[in-house]
Known about the structure:
By secondary structure, this protein is α+β, with helices and mostly antiparallel strands.
Amino acid sequence: MFINKRGLEILSFFSNGSKHTLKEICAKFSCSSRMIRYDIDNINYILKGNNLNMIQKNSYNQLYLDISFKDLSKIISDYSNLSPENRVFYIQLRILSENKISVPELSKHLEFSKETLKFDLRETSKLLKSSGILTTYSSPSELMLIGEERSIRRLLMETLLKTTSLNFSSLEQDLKRSIQNCLKVVSPFKLNEILKKFETEYKRKFLKRDFDRIFCILCSNVLRAEFITENYELGLKPKFESVHAEIKNNFLDIGIKLFDYEIESIREIIIDNHRSFNRDKLYIKTKFFIESLKARTHFNYNFSDSFIEGLATHIGETLLRKDKIAIFSKATEKEDSKFFHHLRNTLLEIFPNYPEEDVAYVYSVFKDPLTDFIFQNSSSIHAVLVTNNTSLARSMIVKNLKNNLNIEITEILPTYLFEIFGSNSKDSLIISTEHISDPGDCRVFKVSETLNQRDVQTILCGLYDRFFM
C-alpha cells in the first residue's frame, strides 16, 4: 500500500495531537469529503499494518490520531521517498495480485508524472519478463499479465516474501513436513495444532490480507496430487481418511479461496479478452483448473482431452451466463457481435460433428461430449452425490429417472468441495456438487440398470445447475 503526497500532508496535520472535523480537513486541502475519506482509509490501513493506532472519530465528530511523534515521523519518512526500485516493486506487486492494472487509476493514486509512470511500467515489464511472465495492454489504459498461473502465483509469493526474512522454499517445507508428520503419527493427529503453530510463527510478519494470499498459494503447492497419492498408496488408507477429513475441515476456507481464484482467472480469459477469444488458452487454463482441484483429493484420474474441452466449454458458458451475456444473439443486437461470432466458430471447430443448432448454446455442446465420455469408458454408472440430505438426493435422482431404476447405497466415499473425478475403477464416475462437513453424508449410489443418454444428461445437468447456478 502506498501513501500519496496529500495523505502524508494529512498525517502531518495530526502531528501535534490536534483534532479536526472532516469539513475542516476538506477545506484545508481543497478536496471533497469522498477523497479525504479515501486517503484516511489508506492511512489507517498503513498504520494498522505497522501495529499503530489509527485515525479515529470522537463523540464530537472530530478526527484525531493518538500516536507518538517518533512513530508518526518514521511513517512519514518511510513513505515520503520512493526510489525507482520501490516504485517498480509496488507496481509489480499490484499487477501480480490483480492480474491487471488501470494505468490512469495508478497514475492518480501514485501522483507521478505520466513519463515517470511509463518508465516504471517498462521496467516492471522487463522484470516480469525475466521470470517468464509477459505483459500486454488489453486496452490503451489497462496493462495485464500473460503467463502460466503457477508461475504468476510463485512470483507473487516470492515478491511478498521479499519484504520479510522468510524464504519460500523453507516456508513450504515447514508446512509439508508438518502434514507428513500428521500422516505418520499412529494416534489421531490434530492438524489444528499445526495450523495454530504455523500461524503464530508466521502470520505476525504479514498484514492479514497478504498472509491469507500467501497461505492460499502455499497450501496449493503443498497439497499436490502426487504428495497425497503417494501417501495413500503406501497402505495408509484408514489413517489417511481420518486425517484427510481433518485436513479438509481446516483447509476449507483456503480451498474456497483457491476455487474462487481459479474461477475468476477463467472468467478473465473469456470476458476480459473477448476481442481475441483463444480456445487453446481456455483449454490450458481449464486443464490447470482441473489439476488444482485434483490436488485437493486423493483421487488420481487422467481425463481425455475431449472431456476437458467439454468442461472448458461448459465453464465458459456458465461464467458468461452469470454475467447475463447472451451467447448467440443476432449480430445487429450486440456491440460485441464479433466475439460471439468467433466463439460460435470456435465451438464448431472443437465439435465439428454436431449440427449447428446444437451449438446454439454452449451448454448443449457440453452435455453430449460428457455423455459420450461416460458411455465410452463405463460399463455401469456410479453416481457420487454430495448432499446434506441423502433422502432428498435419493428422491431427486429417482424423480429424474422417472422412478424406473433401482438405486442402492453401496459405499461411503470421502470427498470435499467440488470434484468431477473418476475413482480407481474405470466403470465409475464421481459427481460432487457442494461441500459438506460430515464425510458420512457423501453416499455412492449405484444405478443397477442401463441408462439411456437422455437420463444421464438429466442427472448431470441437474447437478451442474445446482452447483454453478
